[in-house]
From TrEMBL, chain A:
It catalyses: geranylgeranyl diphosphate + L-cysteinyl-[protein] = S-geranylgeranyl-L-cysteinyl-[protein] + diphosphate. Its EC number is 2.5.1.60. Keywords: Metal-binding, Phosphoprotein, Prenyltransferase, Repeat, Transferase, Zinc. It comes from Umbra pygmaea (Eastern mudminnow). One of its GO terms (cellular component) is Rab-protein geranylgeranyltransferase complex. Its cofactor is Zn(2+). This is Geranylgeranyl transferase type-2 subunit beta. Belongs to the protein prenyltransferase subunit beta family. It comes from the Eukaryota.
UniProtKB/TrEMBL annotation, chain B:
Residues 195-215 are annotated as: Disordered. InterPro entries: Leu-rich_rpt, LRR_dom_sf, Prenyl_trans_a, RabGGT_asu_insert-dom_sf, RabGGT_asu_insert-domain. Its EC number is 2.5.1.60. It catalyses: geranylgeranyl diphosphate + L-cysteinyl-[protein] = S-geranylgeranyl-L-cysteinyl-[protein] + diphosphate. It comes from Umbra pygmaea. This is Geranylgeranyl transferase type-2 subunit alpha.
Length: 331, 583
């Protein structure tokens, strides 16, 4: 019962050059089909969708093509009395969209559009006895939300608003035998979760707690013969996992442990030459989520046509420079 | 957004699809608007439950709809009899089961199921456990379901050994199941914890104790059980030598316990009026209550980490008030207290001595060896034999090669050095994508071996030239080294950690590709630096050297920086202390 390596085959005719203009056109047009079925159906994550689109446009030097006024008004209208931000009007506030909103406004340098004090209060109010964070008042616990909390507060310069020691203790209690992290104590390691926990430990100045050699080995073993990276053993490669893994490796100072050239060709092969945008895998449908992580991944790999991206916050470094925010990276 | 294959369509198909989407959009928007308006009006009734059910059945990720359902259920709970509440929540669980069938990976559905289960007046955990069994039989890697299972197990007090048997079953039917191996790694330390006494038999954990805390990453497994696990894993990798799950698990089994938190070295220098303290792991001295007591008197000192880049560092330094220890005819006794960990370390500076230290050597701590006790070397030896057999069958198997290297290190790192190096060579050839990882790991092992050799020889000279070193590590172990030779390797930099070599006088690092000297920072004794044939290209790259007061000799031959116009005078301006410059 030998295991077959799950992977994709990149066809020789797959795109091998970066089609930046097409991607910018794709993102610019995406928000204009507001009564499209797919678009409407994704309203439950709209604010995050805007973050993906704006960030990738900024990384490509095309931020001015987006309608700042409209976006800012929309974000403002999504803040609730409790301080939290919802994905869209009529939806409930949640840490996921609160972070996205703060990231969006940070790109524009206008976080004051929100009632910042209330945002800070909202985030602080979601911390639990054990240091963990609930995503919203309904109590789902996940290390993703620990990341959302400290990322939001870091961007607002208010990291002291929570019990940091407890928060760190909880995230460390999610560390596994393979050096990775899961959603909750006892949960299996997963690249997305590892990214959140490595990012969390970077923002809280605790990266020395990571076993970087062990985790780095697990992470670099995510690279498959196609060059793409998967999120867990025996899974298919994916552009978004390529970002979670690559950014985690960058944070723990081990990005040279993967084959950069092969990853680059995998990411480029996930472009759609007709429509612009990136898909999860070659030949699949594109979306803004994978478009951001494709472009951000290429930036981490050193592509000079793209602005430098910060591996912890997935935003342009120049934006964080202005904020004086420089999350730790291991050397 | 995942796994949707792009299909070529004709104009007519496109038109049909457009119409279909428009129809679906209308249905969705109508239902959504109806729901939102009901909620706005504070309506919490059965009709709202039905409407949200309609949408959630196909869109389980719309979190707000689950929230509204919970509001309704909580309200109905207050106005209904217990039996009706039970029925209401049972119906909710049936609905959820149908949602999970359509979309087994929705965060929203699983969280809601947990919420409902916790609110049931008469919870049926056995049913929940069997739901998990069914779900995992369809996809044994679904981490949502695994997490839900752990919650159910915790809530209902399923004994740990029963869960371990569950993983036995799953692994028995399919070795290639990373999730099961992972689960095992959390269960074993609960059931068979490592005994506090290194050589006593396993502690008898109560087999029927409920699984209360699944978190055990720092805990280890007792030796007796470890040996049984070795057997299980061997079965797995002999059955399928390319399945990474078993190999990852095996490496964990071979690993050693985390080092105890302690002060591993105290060093004091009369001339520099300075104390350096090394810890077994990075700490923040300013926040962990580090106190220096000199001849019975607590001293007011300021601790600084070895490099401004580190808030946490394994080595910390402080200056002693001027004049206190400078008279060579006096004897002094130092104690460093680490109040946070209730531990301390003494160090005596005798008359006539200019420096002194007290420390654990790497050999004492078996720092670089496996955690298995020496008595069980025979077991490791037989593990190595098995892996060698497998390698005969599968000479290209990278997992096997790497494991053999690890076993050899656990057994006899110096004795197996040549074989280890040759296996690393093969590894880089069979798995070129990860060659940089193997190079760094090999560098680490070579450094460990050199530290061991240095300690056996009782010298303060660390020499590791011409060994393809690509990175540096364990530099905290080199605190007392006075001479280091790293020439003819592939180093790109002397990282900030290099500043831990607090006693360094002579550095040779010729013939590398070094372009960054960040780690040559405040090295008080450094006199002689040879960096021939490296990649130092700017004067500013030499900036860190300005913090080394005793530096007089610098060899920069064969570096691009020497090509700068007026190099000698420019350098004299930056580093006036250099009297012997070669370029
Ligand atoms: Zn993806």
């Amino acid at each position: 019962m030998g295991t077959q390596v799950k992977d994709v085959v990149i066809k020789p005719e797959a795109p091998s050059v970066l089609l930046l203009d097409k991607h910018a056109d794709y993102i610019a047009a995406y928000g204009s089909k507001k009564d499209d079925y797919e678009y409407t159906l994704s309203e439950y994550l709209r604010v995050s969708g805007i973050y993906w689109g704006l960030t990738v446009m900024d990384l490509m030097g095309q931020l001015t093509r987006m309608n700042q006024q409209e976006i800012t008004d929309f974000i403002k209208s999504c803040q609730h009395d409790c301080g939290g931000v919802s994905a869209s009007i009529g939806h409930d506030p949640h840490l996921l969209y609160t972070l996205s909103a703060v990231q969006i406004l940070s790109l524009y340098g206008t976080v004051d559009v929100l009632d910042v004090d209330r945002v800070v209060q909202y985030v602080g109010g979601l911390q639990q006895e054990d240091g963990s964070f609930a995503g919203d008042k309904w109590g789902e616990i996940d290390t993703r939300f620990s990341f959302c909390a400290v990322a939001t507060l870091s961007l607002l310069g208010k990291l002291d608003a929570i019990n940091l020691n407890k928060a760190v203790e909880f995230v460390l209690s999610c560390m596994n035998f393979d050096g990775g992290f899961g959603c909750r104590p006892g949960s299996e390691s997963h690249a997305g979760q590892i990214y959140c926990c490595a990012g969390f430990l970077s923002l809280t100045g605790q990266l020395h707690q990571i076993n970087a050699d062990l985790l780095g080995w697990w992470l670099c073993e995510r690279q498959l013969p196609s060059g793409g990276l998967n999120g867990r053993p025996e899974k298919l490669p994916d552009v978004c996992y390529s970002w979670w893994v690559l950014a985690s490796l960058k944070i723990i100072g081990r990005i040279h442990w993967i084959d950069k050239a092969k990853l680059r060709s995998f990411i480029l092969a996930c472009q759609d030459e007709e429509t612009g945008g990136f898909a999860d895998r070659p030949g699949d449908m594109v979306d803004p989520f994978h478009t951001l992580f494709g472009v951000a991944g290429l930036s981490l790999l050193g592509d000079e046509q793209i602005k430098e991206v910060n591996p912890v916050l997935c935003m342009p470094e120049e934006v964080l420079d202005k904020l004086g925010l420089h999350p730790d990276l291991l050397s | 957004m995942h796994g949707r294959i792009k299909i070529k369509t004709t104009v007519q198909q496109e038109e049909e699809k457009r119409k279909e989407r428009e129809r679906k959009l209308k249905i969705y928007v109508t239902a959504r608007d109806a729901i939102f308006s009901k909620r706005k009006n504070g309506v919490l009734d059965d009709e709202a439950l039905q409407l949200t059910q309609q949408l959630l059945a196909s869109n389980p990720d719309v979190a707000t709809l689950w929230n509204y359902r919970r509001e309704i259920l909580l309200h109905l709970e207050t106005i209904r009899e217990e039996d009706d509440v039970q029925k209401m929540y049972d119906a909710e669980l049936s609905f959820l089961e149908s949602c999970l069938k359509v979309n087994p990976k929705s965060y929203g559905s699983w969280h809601h199921r947990g919420w409902v289960s916790a609110r049931l007046p008469r919870p049926d955990w056995a049913r929940e456990l069997s739901l998990c069994d069914r779900c995992l039989s369809l996809d044994d890697r679904n981490f949502h379901c695994w997490d839900y299972r752990r919650m159910v197990v915790k809530m209902s007090g399923v004994p740990v050994d029963q869960e371990l048997q569950f993983t036995d079953r799953l692994i028995g039917s399919n070795f290639s199941n990373y999730s099961s191996w992972h689960y095992r790694s959390t269960l074993l330390p609960l059931l068979h914890p490592e005994s506090p006494e290194p050589h006593s038999p396993c502690q008898q954990a109560s087999h029927s104790s409920p699984l209360t805390s699944p978190q055990t990453h720092s805990h280890r497994v007792c030796e007796e059980q470890l040996l049984k696990e070795y057997e299980l894993v061997q079965n797995a990798f002999f059955t399928d030598p390319n399945d990474q799950s078993a190999w990852f698990y095996y490496r964990w089994l071979l690993g050693r316990a985390e080092r105890e938190e302690m002060i591993s070295c105290v060093f004091v220098s009369r001339e520099e009026e300075r104390v350096a303290v090394a810890f077994s792991r990075p700490v923040n001295a300013s926040s962990s209550g580090l106190i220096l007591v000199l001849d019975g008197q607590p001293q007011r000192v300021e601790w600084r980490s070895i490099h401004p880049r580190f808030k946490h560092s394994p080595v910390w330094i402080c200056k002693i008030p001027p004049g206190t220890i400078s008279d060579i005819s006096n004897e002094h006794n130092l104690t460093v207290h680490w109040t946070e960990k209730h531990t301390h370390r003494d160090c005596a500076l005798y008359t006539g001595r200019s420096e002194s230290w007290c420390r654990d050597s790497a050999t004492d701590q078996e720092l670089f060896r496996s955690e298995l006790s020496v008595e069980k070397t025979s077991v490791l030896q037989s593990e190595l034999q098995s892996c060698n057999q497998l390698l005969d069958l599968e000479p290209q198997n990278k997992w096997c090669l790497l494991t053999i290297i690890l076993l050899m290190r656990a057994l006899d790192p110096l004795g197996y050095e040549t074989e280890t190096l040759s296996h690393f060579q093969t590894l880089k050839e069979v798995d070129p994508m990860r060659s940089a990882y193997y190079s760094d790991l090999c560098s680490k092992f070579m450094i460990e071996n050199t530290i061991l050799k240095m300690e056996y020889a009782e010298v303060r000279v660390f020499s590791l030239s011409d060994k393809n070193l690509t990175s540096l590590c364990h530099l905290d172990q080199l605190l007392l080294v006075t001479h280091i030779n790293l020439s003819s390797n592939q180093l790109l930099r002397l990282p900030p950690e290099f500043a831990m070599l607090q006693c360094l006088e002579v550095l040779e690092a010729d013939n590398n590709a070094i372009e960054n000297l960040e780690g040559l920072y405040h090295l008080a004794k450094l006199q002689d630096v040879s960096l021939k044939n490296n990649k130092i290209s700017k004067l500013s790259d030499l900036q860190p050297l300005t913090s080394c007061p005793k530096l007089t000799r610098l060899d920069l031959r064969g570096n691009p920086v020497t090509q700068i116009v007026n190099f000698q005078s420019e350098l004299a301006e930056v580093l006036p202390s250099i009297t012997d410059l070669l370029f």
